[in-house]
Task: inverse folding
């Protein structure tokens, strides 16, 4: 479930993520961290500014960033 404060949704496909860490390093708001499986995981989604840097740098196309839609 997405926080009502989140302006963006960051989705990481764990099957595609190889844990290279590029997205974790480039995120200006430190939204992503490694989980226990050494895969990227959004942990501070409310801080995401929608810059798409994580999505653009991912060599495996494992990350998508979308604008959050309010619940209807």
Result:
């Amino acid at each position: 479930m997405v926080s009502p404060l989140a302006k963006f949704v960051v989705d990481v496909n764990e099957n595609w993520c190889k844990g290279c860490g590029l997205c974790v390093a480039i995120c200006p708001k430190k939204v992503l961290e490694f989980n226990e499986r050494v895969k990227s995981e959004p942990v501070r989604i409310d801080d995401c500014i929608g810059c798409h840097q994580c999505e653009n740098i991912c060599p495996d196309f494992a990350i998508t960033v979308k604008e959050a839609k309010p619940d209807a």
